[in-house]
């Protein structure tokens, strides 16, 4: 029986929210299980845990040494050793039966500590292209759960697709959501577009969509930019929303989404049933955002716009086309709560619960 689980995640919301979402599900469905959380020292990750009422263990890593600027590599390698002893300290305190690694730069020391202590471990890879931790873990015989049906470069059978655990949101009416976002008056009946650029809020995407929103053809539409900084202008049909964690109101009020292809946002948009224009971030490791976007568009109402080769006219045409398809096929996916619950439940049933019956996976 699994009695104590350590959830490890850090870096961006794309790693941290799946850990928090899965932890919340475990608390609701298996209250007898003790959960511990381990993260890094960046202010954004700490803000996310604290907004969820959690007080995680912290290891003092700034980022991965691999791919770090030349001048920082040595310091980061030193931090990895320090991270190893801090992770070991956390394992000693938490005494987990199992450890689930949701990714981010701080997973490597935890993977090693789990191996040294003979603790069952599992990696959840959110992306359709596996990162370094998942590939290394797989080579060490650690099971890998994935966010999508395909998880390159793994061959089928080397990973188990379960989806990305996301927070279980209840969608509300358009007008209630409008008010809960702090917006005045009646929610407009013309299309509302949610513009989401990941937890780090990709500025170039906001600027591209801002140009589009200024065109006459979109004058009656409303564009809500989540986490946009003040360098965008907030005139006319453009509304800047500060970074906020109650994104269910955005999903409730929006008709369409324009987004980066982070695995969690794509999953949330899918569960909310929003048609989406997906703009993969081209610098993502292994071009994983493009891999995510391709999988999303295969099964959902979505189109990819390539910011390196696509023109603004194409962006406008694709958005209009999405709106036309929304008119033809009314929105599905209002039961976002239960759809999200199923993903965490599958992760538990297929991979975590069996860890209790197997020993020495590492
Ligand atoms: C730039 C980058 O490398 N991004 C990667 C990062 O996630 P990144 O954090 O960029 O993106 P994701 O879409 O995966 O996750 C963002 C999460 O933060 C939430 N959110 C965001 C903004 C906000 O104001 N409020 C809020 O709650 C979203 O609802 C979502 O749950 O890790 C993911 C998982 O490996 C990858 O798929 C992304 O490609």
From TrEMBL:
Example of a GO MF term: hexosyltransferase activity
Its EC number(s): 2.4.1.227
Enzyme class of the recorded protein, top EC level: transferase
Residue ranges that the Swiss-Prot or TrEMBL entry lists as coiled coil: none
CDD domains: GT28_MurG
Domain of life: Bacteria
UniProt GO BP: carbohydrate derivative biosynthetic process; carbohydrate metabolic process
Matching InterPro entries: Glyco_trans_28_C, GlycoTrans_28_N
Gene3D superfamilies (alphabetical): Glycogen Phosphorylase B
Keywords: Glycosyltransferase, Transferase
Residues covered by the Glycosyltransferase family 28 N-terminal domain: 5-140
Signal peptide: none
Pfam families named among the record's database cross-references: Glyco_tran_28_C, Glyco_transf_28
Ranges of residues in domain Glycosyl transferase family 28 C-terminal: 250-328
Protein name: Undecaprenyldiphospho-muramoylpentapeptidebeta-N-acetylglucosaminyltransferase
């Amino acid at each position: 029986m699994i009695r104590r689980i350590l959830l490890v995640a850090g870096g961006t919301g794309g790693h941290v929210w799946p850990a928090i979402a899965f932890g919340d599900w475990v608390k609701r469905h298996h209250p007898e299980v003790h959960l511990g959380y381990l993260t890094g020292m960046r202010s954004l990750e700490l803000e996310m845990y604290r907004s969820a009422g959690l007080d995680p263990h912290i290891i003092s890593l700034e980022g991965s040494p691999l791919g770090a600027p030349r001048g920082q590599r040595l310091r980061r390698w030193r931090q990895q050793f320090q991270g190893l002893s801090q992770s070991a300290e956390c394992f000693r305190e938490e005494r987990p039966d199992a450890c689930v690694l949701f990714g981010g730069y701080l997973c490597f020391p935890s993977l090693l500590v789990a191996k040294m202590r003979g603790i069952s471990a599992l990696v959840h890879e959110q992306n359709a292209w596996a990162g370094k931790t998942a590939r290394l873990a797989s080579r060490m015989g650690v099971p890998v759960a994935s966010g999508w049906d395909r998880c390159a470069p793994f061959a089928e059978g080397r990973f188990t697709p379960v989806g990305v655990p996301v927070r279980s949101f209840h969608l509300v009416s358009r007008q209630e959501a409008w008010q809960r976002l702090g917006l005045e008056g009646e929610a407009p009946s013309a299309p509302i577009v949610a513009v989401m650029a990941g937890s780090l809020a990709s500025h170039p995407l906001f600027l591209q969509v801002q140009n589009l929103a200024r065109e006459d053809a979109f004058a009656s539409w409303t564009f809500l930019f989540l986490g946009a900084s003040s360098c965008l202008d907030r005139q006319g049909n453009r509304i800047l929303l500060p970074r906020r964690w109650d994104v269910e109101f955005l999903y409730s009020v929006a008709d369409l989404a324009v987004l980066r292809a982070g695995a969690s946002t794509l999953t949330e948009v899918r569960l909310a049933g929003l048609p989406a224009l997906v703009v993969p971030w081209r610098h993502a490791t292994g071009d994983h955002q493009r891999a995510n976007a391709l999988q999303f568009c295969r099964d959902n109402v979505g189109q990819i716009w390539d910011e390196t080769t696509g023109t603004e006219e194409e962006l406008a045409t694709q958005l209009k086309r999405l709106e036309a398809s929304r008119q033809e096929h009314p929105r599905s996916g209002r039961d976002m709560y239960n759809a999200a619950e199923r993903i965490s439940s599958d992760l538990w049933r297929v991979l975590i619960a069996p860890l209790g019956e197997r020993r020495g996976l590492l």
